[in-house]
Structure formats: C-alpha cells, structure tokens
User: What shape does this take?
Amino acid sequence: MVTVVHPKKSGRDLSRDLSIPVLIRTIRRLTNEKVQMASEVSSMLRNQVTERASAKEEASILQDELDSQTRRLETEKNELQSILEKDLDRRSNDWSLKLEKYQIEQHRLCERARDLVEQNVYLQREVSSCNEKEVVNRIKMPFLEKHLKDLSKRIEQVLEENQNLRQQLTQLQEEY
Assistant: This one.
C-alpha cells in the first residue's frame, strides 16, 4: 500500500487522510486547480495569440508605412534625378555654346594675330626701306645742297641776264 503524505498534515495519521471523502475533496480540489490552471494557460495562450495578431497587424501597418515611404522617397528621388539631369543637360548645353563661342573667338583672334604679323612684317620692310632711303638721302643731301646753290646762282645769273636783255630790248625799241 502506497502512502501519500500531505505537506500540511505530515504529523497526523495517514489512514484518516486517505478516506474517500478526503480523497474526493482532494480530487475536486486538484480538478479545480487543474481547470483553473488550464483556464490560466488558455487565457495566456489567448493573450499570446492576441498579442501575436496585434504584433502582426502592427508589423503589417509598419510595413505598409515603410512601403509608402519607400515609394514616396523613390518618387522624390526620381523627380530630383530628372530635375538634376535636366539642369545638367542645360548647363552642358550652356557650356557647349560658350565653348563654341570661345573657339570662334579664338579662331578670329588667331586670324587677326596672323594679319597683324603680316602687317608688322610689311611695316618693318617699309620702315627699313625708309631708313635706307633716309641714309641715301643724307648721303645725297650735301651734294643736293651744293647743286641747289649752284642752281640758285645760275637762276640769279639768268634772271640778271634776262633783266639786262629786257633793258637792252627796251632801249632798242626806244631807239627805233
């Protein structure tokens, strides 16, 4: 025979404690405890299921918000990228036009510089020629001055001679 010792009644006689009414009460008490524990476990399980459902719903809401924000950010990114690409294209076109203008201006200035170099060479030749002529003229100058003096004297002589001839003509005309 197995004897069960109840913790509260460890010092008593066990034969009295094993009576049918005591056993029935113990079975009822244990059954009630079991039902209560099952009810608590069931309640805890329902709470867990509810919490999981709530967590799933919250996760779903958060996922929807995240998806919405991701789409919004993707849209903003695409809009900004489009704006930046248009701005880059515009600036690229502006710089291309400026580069083309500068290249045209550079070509024009190169042509102008070439023309100025040619003019400079021509003018240097002219200046050189003038300098040579000036040197020649300086060399000729004393001779020309002497020739001019000689011619001036000759003119004076001719004028004087001419004057004399006129006077003689006048005298001759008066005599005849």
Q: What stands out?
A: Confidence is low (pLDDT under 50) at residues 1-5. Residues 12-169 form one domain. The chain has one domain: 12-169.
